[in-house]
Amino acid sequence: MTATSVYEQWVRGLQAWAKDPMTNLDHLPSMTEESQPVAVFERLVERLSQALRTFTDSWADQLFVRLGDARDSFSQAQVMVDSQRMFARRLLLAQHRGLPQTLREALWDAAIADARSLQKELDDLAERADRQLGSTGEMTALFRDHTLTSLVEPGFPLAEFVAGRYADTHGYGRVEPTLDSSHALPVGLRGSTPRVLPTW
Asked: How far is it, in rounded angstroms, from Cα 43 to Cα 24?
């Protein structure tokens, strides 16, 4: 396999993206399942899964470090918007037109499931923190005003949000997927469920 193959270009792109989700992947070529040997396509799915795990770990670490450093409500809100915007980059990867339709659908379903799971963990952590601090629910309100699930609502302008041209996520509700999409995921993506988030 040459270094300029479609597979190799995608592997290099995903490695760069996992380290820096701001990496532009628009240049990556289109592929279909039929255009790649089965073993190659399965390796690509595993590479995608690895990239998502690396992304989620880094995303969670940055969120909690920055929240710990935030000293006022404005700074905390900015951290949450930045965190939403970073998570939205994962959603844009799931929509990449170079990926086969079936894989895009699986990635999107996995992203919805992970967004819901992560949001529940964030809400639970915030409620515990508010109880421990004896506050009136400021942390809970912060997380619920900046939900990850709002990003996967139909019609949400992901590209504009990531580019900073759209900032208001309050008009979008908390999506609740009605199907367990894990059965539809390629084998390599079934292990992409995010880790448990750290506690304060």
From this structure: 22
Contact 162, 88 (CB under 8 A): yes
Q: Which two tokens stand for residue 47?
A: 């590479």
The sign of the torsion formed by the CA atoms of 113, 115, 121, 127 equals negative
CB 123 within 8 A of CB 148: no
d(CA 62, CA 79): 9
pLDDT (tens digit per residue) in 154-174? 889 999 999 888 766 655 544
Q: How far is the C-alpha of 175 from the C-alpha of 38, rounded, in Å?
A: 34
98 within 8 A of 36, measured Cβ to Cβ:
no
In this prediction the pTM is 0.81
Answer whether 112's CB lies under 8 Å from 195's CB: no
Q: Among 191, 196, 194, which residue's Cα sits nearest to residue 45?
A: 191
